[in-house]
Amino acid sequence: MITIDSESLELKTRTLGMRIFQEDESQSSSYLSKHFWIKKILGLSFRFPKLKIEMFRFVDVLPSLRSKKEITEHFVLYLLNENTETHNWIRSLLRIVLRIPPIPFFFGIGIQAAILKTSGNFIAGKNFQKAEKRLRILRKKNSVFTLDVLGEAALSEKEADGYQKQYLEILESVDSFAGSETTGYGVCPFVNVSIKCSSLFSQISSLAKEESVAILKEKLRPILRLAKKKQYFVNLDAEQYDYKEILITLAKEIFSEPEFEDYPHFGIVIQAYLKESKEDLIRILEYSKNRKAPLTVRLVKGAYWEYEVIKAKEKGWDVPVFENKNETDFNYEECAKILLDSHPIILSAFASHNIRSLSAILTYAESRGIPKRDFEIQMLYGMGDSYKVVLKKMGYRIREYTPLGDILPGMAYLVRRLLENTSNQGFLQNFLSGRMDYSHLLKNPKESIIDAKLL
Which residue ranges does the record assign to the Proline utilization A N-terminal domain (predicted)? Predict the structure, then answer.
C-alpha cells in the first residue's frame, strides 16, 4: 500500500478543482454558448425558491390533466398563488387575462409544449428509436451512455413483463452503437444498460427476500444472456433502501451462476448516502475477489433522500441515510478511495456533478498510479454539459445516464432531478447563485463536519 501525504493530496485536490472551474468558465462565458444561458436560467430560478417549488408541483401533476383548459387552471392555481414571489400586479393581470376565451386553450397548448421541450433536455426519448439521434450526438461528442427505462416500479406482473420486454428490445436495437475501448484491465463496451429490479417484479418485498430474489433471477436471465451474447454491459441499479439487500443478494447469486461467472461486464450500484454503504462496498469487494471476472461498482450519492428520511421517521425507524449533506459527501470520498485501492479487483464508475468530489477522486486515482481510462465519470444526461467538456479534454471517460420513457413516468424523474440539483444545500445552487466562491466549494467535507460540530 502506497503511503500518501493527506495534506499534499488535499492541496492537489483543490488545485485540480480550481482548474476545472476555470476551464468550465471559459467554456460557458460566451453569450453564444448554450452553457451560458443554461446557467443563467438556473441561477434565476434560485432567486425565487417558492415559485420554483410551485413550478415543480405543477410539472408533477401535468401528465394527469386532460384538457388545455385544465392545464391553464392548474398553472394559475400553482404559479399565481399568494405564496410565490410573483408581483401582485403581474399575478392580478394574468388571472384576468387567462379567463378570456380562447386564451386559456392556447395558453395551455403553449405551457404543455414548453414542459415537454424541457423534459427533452433530461429524457432522451420515448424509446431507443426515438432517442437514437440524440445518442449519436453523444457519441460525436466522445461520450458513452447508460440507458435507463423510466418508471419507479411495476404495479402488476403484466407491467413487469412489459419492462422486461423493453430491456430486451433495447439490447436488440443498439447494434449500431456496438463497440468498445481498450483499458488497462481489458475492454469496456460502449453499450451499457441500467436495470431497476422493482420494474421486473411487482411484488418485490424485503419481507419476502428469498422469493423476490428467485423470481428476479428468472426475469433477469434472458436479459443477461442477450447482453453476454452481444458483449454489452448490464448494471443493476439501486433504488429504495428496502430493496438493498435484495439487490446485493441477487447480484452475488446470479453473477456467480456458471453461465455468467466469467463475464466481465456486469455491475451494481452503491449509494453513499446510506450509513451502511462502506460495509456493503466491502461485501461486494470480497465477492468480486473470488469471482472469475471483476464487477464494476457505480458509486452514487443517492436520489431518494427525502423519501428515506420521511418514511423512517413516519415508521419510527432509524434513518438509514446521512441527514447532513457534508457527511454524505465525505462518505462518498471515503468509498471512492476503497474502490480505487481495490483496482483492478473491482472496477469503478463515479457518478457525481460535484466538482469537489470528482477532484478528490481524480487526484487520489493519480496518486495511486491508476490510468485515466481505467475508471469512468458518470453524469446525468442534460446536466453539467460544460463540465463534461472540460473533463473529456483532460482525458477522462464520461458516461451519461440517459433515461428513456413516456412523459408520465418521466415527470417523476424530471422533478426529482430538478429538486436534487436545485436543493438549498446543493453544490450547483451554491455555484450558480454566487453565494460561495470556488475555494468554499472545494472545501473538504470533513472540515465542514468538524466546523458544524464546533458551533
Answer: 11-97
pLDDT at 92 over 80: yes
- CB 442, CB 430: distance < 8 Å: no
Give the Cα separation of 283 and 293 in Å (integer): 16
All 3 cell numbers of residue 263? 463475464
Q: Please name every residue paired with 33 in a beta bridge, in sequence order, or none if there are none.
A: none
Compute how many other C-beta atoms are within 10 angstroms of the C-beta atom of residue 437: 11
Pairing of strands 375-380, 347-351: parallel
H helix runs in 191-234, sequence order: 209-230
Q: What is the largest CA-CA distance in the chain?
A: 74
CB 214 within 8 A of CB 200: no
Please give the radius of gyration of the chain, using alpha carbons only, rounded to the nearest integer. Answer: 23
Q: Which residues contact 186 (CB under 8 A, 6 or more apart)?
A: 264
Q: What integer pLDDT is reported at residue 224 of this predicted model?
A: 98
Per the CB < 8 A criterion, the answer to whether 172 and 218 are in contact is no
**DSSP element (H, E) containing 194:** strand 192-196
C-alpha–C-alpha distance, residues 39 and 384, integer Å: 9
- Report the C-alpha gap between 411 and 307 in whole angstroms: 17
Task: Please name which of 132, 170, 129, 133 lies closest in space to residue 148, comparing C-alpha atoms.
Answer: 170
Write the pLDDT tens digit of every residue in 158-184. Answer: 999 999 999 999 999 999 999 888 887
Report whether 214 contacts 225 (CB < 8 A). no
Task: Report the alpha-carbon distance of residue 294 to residue 122 in Å, rounded.
Answer: 31
| Inter-residue contact 109 to 390 (CB < 8 Å) | no
Integer angstrom CA distances of residue 360 from 296, 309, 356, 425 = 20, 28, 6, 19
54's grid cell: 410551485
Backbone phi, psi, residue 83, to 5°: -80, -15
Half-sphere exposure of 46 (CA within 13 A, CB side): 21
Residue type, 283: R
- The span from the CA of 336 to the CA of 316, in Å, is 31
Of the candidates 241, 236, 247, which has an alpha carbon nearest to the alpha carbon of residue 209?
A: 247
Q: Which amino acid is at 254?
A: I
Q: Which residue has the cell 428468472?
A: 218
Helix, strand, coil share of the chain (percent; to 5): 60, 15, 30
Q: Rounded distance, CA 437 to CA 186, Å?
A: 41
pLDDT tens readout for residues 352-379: 999 999 999 999 999 999 999 899 999 9
- Surface-to-core class of residue 165, CB atoms within 10 Å of its CB (0-12 exposed, 13-18 middle, 19+ buried): exposed
